[in-house]
Amino acid sequence: MIIKQLTVFLENKKGRLTEVTKVLSNNKINISALSIADTADFGLLRMIVDNPEKAEEQLKSSGFAVHVNEVICMIVPDEPGGLYRALEILTNADIGIEYLYAFSSENKKASVVIRTDEVQKTIDILQENQIQLIKANQLYKL
Fold first, then answer.
1. pLDDT 10s digits, 11-56
2. Are residues 52 and 79 in the same domain?
3. pTM
4. Total structural domains in the chain?
5. Could you list the residue range(s) of the whole structural domain that residue 58 is in?
6. How far apart are CA 8 and CA 47, in angstroms?
7. How far apart are CA 135 and CA 67, in angstroms?
8. pLDDT over 70 at 142, yes or no
9. What is the distance between the terminal CA atoms of the chain, rounded to a whole angstrom?
10. CATH code for position 57
11. Is there a contact between 78 and 48 (Cβ–Cβ < 8 Å)?
12. Do 60 and 41 lie in a common domain?
């Protein structure tokens, strides 16, 4: 259930995101999900890719600062309150959320990538409450 996510630190200048995607493309690495957050000086590109080890290696060898984090991906109903119900479970279990990003699909489900302060405890609590989790190999293939 633990998914490896790459965080790439990017200078805020034109073309840096293009350079990252070029490295991935040249190495036939597919992006399943991504999120970008920025500040005045740099951006954080968070990605789920189909081959995180190879992506980390290739990006580092191309001069990018890369860090691998452990995240999980839960499935919630794509409807009002769908995310709330899952987050309430985590709040009641005293689990802190560092960040999350989500995407929905045509089947009225939303996939939520989430980083918490206690990944294994998060998995256990969500499973106890019948929240569906995506396995790493399933997400890497999206």
1. 888 899 999 999 999 999 999 899 998 877 889 999 999 999 999 9
2. no
3. 0.88
4. 2
5. 3-70
6. 8
7. 21
8. no
9. 15
10. 3.30.2130.10
11. no
12. yes
Q: Which amino acid is at 25?
A: S
Same domain as 94, residue 41 = no
H or E segment and range at residue 135? none
- Joined together, the tokens standing for residue 99 give 């960040």
Question: Which residues sit opposite 74 in a β-bridge?
Answer: 112, 133
104-110: Cβ within 8 A, 24+ apart: 104/78, 105/78, 108/77, 108/78, 108/79, 109/75, 109/76, 109/77, 109/78, 110/75, 110/76, 110/77, 110/78, 110/82, 110/83
The 10s digit of each residue's pLDDT in 89-141 is 999 999 999 999 998 877 889 999 999 999 999 999 999 999 999 988 887 77
Amino acid 73: pLDDT:
95
